[in-house]
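To illustrate the input format used throughout this study, we show a single complete record. The first block contains the structure-token representation of the backbone; no residue identities are included at this stage. The design step must infer an amino acid for every position from geometry alone.
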């Protein structure tokens, strides 16, 4: 059997060559990292949950007209995606202060922000993904002013969609990170949502209890990460079939 070609391996995912030009297969690993990979672990089931959850969010975004790289889920751990040229920025949207912003400004975590705030980090592990102003982005040619306007518009649409979906299942969307890719259609370039959207890249707090249902459970040793992600998947009705407990008794086959 021919071995497929690995295009890239990151901390939580692997990209393989896809079946057709312009496509890739995105494989979700069980590996978790935090603090710029200083903390590492393998968490059984995380990849399966993130594959499902990212499918759910990307499909939902497509249904309201937000373009994404997602084509279809292939199996428990893999999805077919469009190949994009990744813009080397982490686009972070914040609704409430938390994490690095809370620290930087001395704000209590959970402080509501006057409006959604978008910030950009330059994707470079060796530098620890430093926060960068728009001026750097344009001066260094990572994106143009027009790209940035489009990225902000996309990020706000993703925020509205994700906040609404999460609110509907009793979860507060505190902040999240997305990545944006370029695709070329003839002479035209379009920006689309790429990478993944999952509890690995969002802060999700239970509205009632304030419980963390995201990667902070791992970062801050707050309990079982799989349980937290499973709770999100359950509330959204996207539990992977092989993990679902229906409570039904086994049936005799005649
Ligand atoms: N985030 C991410 N990848 C990163 C950095 C941040 O997915 O490399 C997400 C993180 O999960 C959170 C949001 O972006 O939902 C804002 O993260 P923050 O800047 O507060 O950094 P952190 O506290 O995670 O270091």
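Output of the design step:
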């Amino acid at each position: 059997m021919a071995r497929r070609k690995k295009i890239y391996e990151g901390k939580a995912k692997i990209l393989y060559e896809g079946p057709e030009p312009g496509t890739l297969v995105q494989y979700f690993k069980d590996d978790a990292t935090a603090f710029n990979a200083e903390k590492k672990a393998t968490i059984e089931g995380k990849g399966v949950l993130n594959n499902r959850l990212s499918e759910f969010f990307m499909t939902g975004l497509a249904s309201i007209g937000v373009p994404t790289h997602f084509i279809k889920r292939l199996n428990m751990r893999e999805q077919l995606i469009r190949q994009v040229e990744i813009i080397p920025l982490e686009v972070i949207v914040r609704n409430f202060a938390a994490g690095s912003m809370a620290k930087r400004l001395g704000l209590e975590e959970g402080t509501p922000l006057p409006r959604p705030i978008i910030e950009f980090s330059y994707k470079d592990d060796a530098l620890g993904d430093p926060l960068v102003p728009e001026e750097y982005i344009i001066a260094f040619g990572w994106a143009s002013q027009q790209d940035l306007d489009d990225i902000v518009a996309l990020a706000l649409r993703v925020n509205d969609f994700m906040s609404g979906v999460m609110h509907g299942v009793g979860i507060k969307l505190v902040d999240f990170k997305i990545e944006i890719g370029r695709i070329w259609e003839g002479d035209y370039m379009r920006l689309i949502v790429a990478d993944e959207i999952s509890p690995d890249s969002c802060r999700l707090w239970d509205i009632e209890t304030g419980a963390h249902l995201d990667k902070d459970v791992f970062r801050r040793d707050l309990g079982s990460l799989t349980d937290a992600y499973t709770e999100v998947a359950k509330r959204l009705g996207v539990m992977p079939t092989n993990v679902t407990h229906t409570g039904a008794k086994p049936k005799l086959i005649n």
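Structural context for interpreting the output: The domain at 85-206 is CATH 3.30.470.20 (D-amino Acid Aminotransferase; Chain A, domain 1). The CA atoms of residues 93 and 155 lie 7 Å apart.
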